[in-house]
Amino acid sequence: MNSPTQNWRAELTSWLSRNPKQASSDLQQLRQAFVQRFPREQLPSLTLEEYAVGKPDSFCYWVEFKTHRLGSVAGGSSSKWGIWWSKGDQQWKWNKAFQCSDPNEAFTRIRAGLVSLIEVAASEQFDQLEPIGSSQLGPNRNGLRAKPLYLYFPDKFLPISNPYHLAHFLNFFGQQPAGGLHTKNQQLLDFLKNQPEFEGMDTLQMMAFLYSAIPPGDRSLKPQPEAENSDLVQLPEEIVQLATLAEETRNLILYGPPGTGKTYAVNKFASFFLGEQLSTPLAPEQQRREILQPLRWHDVIALAMYLKRPQKYFKVPELADNSLIQEYWTLTKTQKLNNQIWAMLQIHTHPNVETVKYKNRQPPYLFEKNQQGEWCLTEEGEGYIEVNLADELDDLRQPDARKRVISDYLRFVTFHQSFAYEEFVEGLKPVIVDGQIQYQVVDGVFKGICRQAQNDPEHRYLIIIDEINRANIAKVFGELITLIEDDKRLGEDSEITVRLPYSQEEFSVPENLYILGTMNTADRSISLLDIALRRRFTFVELLPDPSLLGTVEGISLSALLARLNQCITALLGRDYQIGHSYFINVKNVTELHFAWYRRVVPLLQEYFYNDAERLRAVLGDRFVQPTEFDDNTQKALRDLCDLDNRFTIQIFEPEQEFLQALQQLATT
Q1: Which class does domain 406-541 fall in?
Q2: Which of 361, 363, 389 is nearest to 305 (CA)?
Q3: Would you tell me the crossing angle of helices 297-307 and 337-347 to the nearest 10 degrees?
Q4: pLDDT band at 663 (very low <50, low <70, confident <90, very high)
Q5: Cβ atoms of 156 and 177 closer than 8 Å
Q6: For 503-520, how does the pLDDT look when each residue is reduced to its tens digit (9 = 90+)?
Q7: Coil, strand, or helix at residue 479?
């Protein structure tokens, strides 16, 4: 399809003149062959060897490769199937999200989730698909969650496994995408079945038409006219493109000239990419893990004591058996629990308590010990809980009332020339203890979100690095530059672990953390971008889009921007174009005047610094005029400087003369 069209009905008519409404007999036979090879009644007894990818004639091999013409789930690594055979290590590997100790236990969980999906689909309990798919199979295994449903029930599901493609198609038809993967699939199928043009068309051919006529990622596509007056918020196609690529790689960079909406795009992407998992209910144990994960050891011990009131005194073994402390222990790398509790109790005992002999005590002072060797939370400790951990206390008491937000899974950081490894990964930071300066190892933003993602493998996490090319990449990433590669992540075939220099902790990057950088191509520091970074990221270009602009007082902002960028491209190159966001919210001549003189002209003056001729070529003679000097000045300075290269920006009031000058520039 050379050029997508807004008139999908006409496009469908044309498409059907070349294609049947029913899939070809060989494709129908291929689906039947899969069903005969893996009857759904026998799925509960499916063995690990029969299931796993990499094994001849396996379930996963059929779903991904043998039936690829019935809906593609290609791309990514074998981890998308939950468990797989590693040829390099000659052993089974499985996703950390299943928190299992052996492959058979992990496979049992996967098989149970798959069987549950098939059973509720057979009984048309479609509202149960989302919670089963997310909780039992995980949000990152879309192919496993969606493709088998189509193969067993071709009339009930579209053979589309990518939730971002589903959102793209719904957006195009003027439908607000709702819910997760399965909800979107049902929403789109219901819409298509209610259109008379699709009557008698099977779901495979519906899919074929959609990808042919409305390809995801095509920025020339706009929602249908009937949606213009609705409440639909259009989904930019670059968001679909980013989300689609995120299924293949976890490292992306969005780059382009200034003003193309890169920051806006990454914020929309974060909401779109992470938003789906917010609609899935959390299991109680996962809710508690999310509450506990950011806390420190002394916080958890203090909370455990506080929640046991009116009990006041505790022995260390009793604390070690506390369920809250036990849960937190599973989130850490602590080996000996009793020793850890002993250490925290002594460190955070007030210096005036004489029953404790430990010298290097540190605030907050929360605990004290009696003569019988029992520990309690002091009045000061209770106040610490009520002031500093009030939200966590409420969440633990009423976990169902806790509302998750995007920021739970997102971190945003802006790189600059002085940004360092210590801020990004970890470093020594000064703290005041008893009036003395001490240095402690403090986690940076990247290490912090890695820790969260590793302790919560069921969900996706995202770190956005704005202006990623502005920092010294080699110094900021350090040894992590290799660890971020897709196949070097935790749990992958080529997993790499390093020992961090300050904390001496073993560290690796979890597979459910995504990194999205932005880069301004007009910034001269782009030429310094580390080649090691270039080859570890997938790049997505975001160019100016004049079609997004309207008209002000007869001035076509689209034509004006196109004219400016043609000149800039010819003189400087495409990386220096002006983005559409400079004019995107301009609705009247006053706003246009402000955008022109306060945003566009200063940028062009920087581009063409001390080069009046080229600046005049871009802005035109009416806006750039030679500076006039009297005869005495010319005589005095002629031999000292180039007076012919001096210019003045003509400032017009936001009235007719200003509009005439812009109109002349836009139509030249």
Answers
A1: alpha beta
A2: 389
A3: 90
A4: very high
A5: no
A6: 888 899 998 999 999 998
A7: coil
